């Protein structure tokens, strides 16, 4: 199916194809896993299928609570139809618990609860290694306006509140996550909406009881059972029903 579409962009985890109508794209989820800015690579059979389904689930629910996003509909096991946006070159990270680079930067123990949710901005640029930036850089370099930053901050907090509750209900702690935003043009006016994906590739998810990691850190840190953990997340969210044979490698 995908062979007939025109490829627009191939990233590390996904491919964007021209959509059926102007202003739409098809987002194809690959099994490729990368970490440390592409230095570490592997194929994790079935990952794309699971992430496509989890991102669909999350984006659909975010639409229901009024958080506008690019998701239109899932087309197949690995493809979803999305609205094309002009990506704002920011990786927006929201943290509830200390982990990863924050633990390193401030010499804090992983797992320490933060007194409040913290939002960080990184400039989306692989060559520079996605450096951390402030709102000053964002406006000075015209990556986004102050109004857009306000919208991004408000939407990120809503996404965080929603995801925290959704995961807490199934015994998972949302430690942190990364999201991307883009501009949707309606004539002169550009509206900021949520884009890209929300999946165990872009979130830190810990089993609340055991503290077990159920996200991409299993790959980054060679903990094993990556697909099993992603599958566990999907199972707990109640979305494994239409994903037969993913772990066995039967999913195309
Ligand atoms: N709705 C959208 N419209 C246009 N581009 C999008 C949309 N949603 C996501 N993207 C972009 O599509 C690409 C998805 O591919 P992938 O996540 O594999 O990229 P990547 O390897 O992480 O590289 P990048 O540094 O470009 O994000 C990203 O560049 C992302 O910003
Ligand atoms: Mg990406």
Automatic annotation (TrEMBL):
EC number: 6.3.2.6
Protein name, UniProt field: Phosphoribosylaminoimidazole-succinocarboxamide synthase
Entries under SUPFAM superfamilies matching the protein: SAICAR synthase-like (SSF56104)
An example Gene Ontology CC term for this record: cytosol
Pfam family, any one: SAICAR_synt
Keyword ATP-binding among UniProt keywords: yes
The organism of origin for this protein: Asticcacaulis excentricus (strain ATCC 15261 / DSM 4724 / KCTC 12464 / NCIMB 9791 / VKM B-1370 / CB 48)
Gene Ontology terms for molecular function: ATP binding; phosphoribosylaminoimidazolesuccinocarboxamide synthase activity
Record-level GO BP terms: 'de novo' IMP biosynthetic process; cobalamin biosynthetic process
Keywords: ATP-binding, Ligase, Nucleotide-binding, Purine biosynthesis
Top-level taxonomic group: Bacteria
Reactions catalysed: 5-amino-1-(5-phospho-D-ribosyl)imidazole-4-carboxylate + L-aspartate + ATP = (2S)-2-[5-amino-1-(5-phospho-beta-D-ribosyl)imidazole-4-carboxamido]succinate + ADP + phosphate + 2 H(+)
